[in-house]
Amino acid sequence: MDSIDATNRKDSSNVGGTPASLLTIILDTNPIAWDTLSPVISLSHVISNLLLFINAHLAINGSNQIAVLASHTDRVAWLYPTPGSNAPSLHSTQNGTVNHHATEEYANKYRPFLAIEQEILANLRQLMDSTDPESLTGASGTDCTQIAGSLTTALTYINQQTLLISPPPDTATVTLQTTQTATKLEQKKLISRLLIVSVSSDLADQYISVMNSIFAAQRLQIPLDVLKLSGSTTFLQQASDATNGIYLAPDPEDLTGGSGLLQYLMMGYLPDATSRQYLNVPGKLEVDFRAACFCHRKVVDIGYVCSVCLSIFCDPGILPNNQCLTCGTALNLPVGWDVKPALIPRRKKKKKVTDGISSPAGTPAPGGSTPIR
What we know:
Elements: E1 20-28, H1 31-37, H2 43-60, E2 65-71, E3 76-80, H3 100-105, H4 111-129, H5 147-165, H6 174-180, E4 190-198, H7 207-219, E5 224-228, H8 234-242, E6 247-248, H9 252-255, H10 261-269, E7 291-292, E8 299-300, E9 304-305, E10 312-313, E11 352-354, E12 357-359
Parallel strand pairs: 1-2, 1-4, 4-5, 5-6
Antiparallel strand pairs: 2-3, 7-8, 9-10, 11-12
Helix pairs in contact: 2-10, 5-7, 7-8
């Protein structure tokens, strides 16, 4: 019967249906920051909740995709998928034999979920084992993370997956088509978004790279969601606001023991960009729009901006020959720009004397009669 079967068996499971959703997670794996946060919640609890969140994302639609990156202190590492090679399986030992005890332990787990879990845990363990403890202590120790490199890598991967699903028909019309369809999410075959789980605080030295990544994500309509577990980062809050993402900073009391983290993930970050158009999303708070100076990489309230390249400086006095450090343009500073204004003391009001009794100006003396008009 198979030889005469003329049924059209073309796969049309996703034709006219819900588009696939790509969730890219950037996990801050700074050991110093996690050690500081350990009394509230540990990295192992966060990984457990993230795995449940990933399973929920994949269970919504069979065509959904997932990618996980680790933003470390000195590099960016892929946790899933592993580039170039297959991840080591927890079912096998080093000599290639099958571990039957491990097979029985995970017998009740859905196999695609189990494969992703094994790959993420194996790559994370390899990343932590390869971290030099001496690089985390002393003067070289830092509580910063490579968030700029993580954003660049994630956006590159998202663009690659988008081109694989819907390749452009002609390279000459790519720019025109992108401009015309950039505002229509319904026409996209892959809805992408980024989730940043951050525990580090200082990102001022990566200001330019982070802002470039924000503008690229805004142009591609990729929301940057931020789950801030510790510290304060002005630029991640700006990234979430500029790309219509969700920024949440849970209270430490809600995260104690890891019990409340899963609720934040499920209720705040599970809907994609298409579903959020019909929901009241959380995280609409006041945004700190301060910038970082290009000379000292510190956040400033008032700065001096170059009129050519828009570089920001906290103190023009450090500029050699009044030239911009970025583009070399000669800056015309007004005479006396660095002179502090003189404080003139307020003149004291004279007290009036009426019948030998002094009173402040404008206040009638006691016992005086009310004037008649």
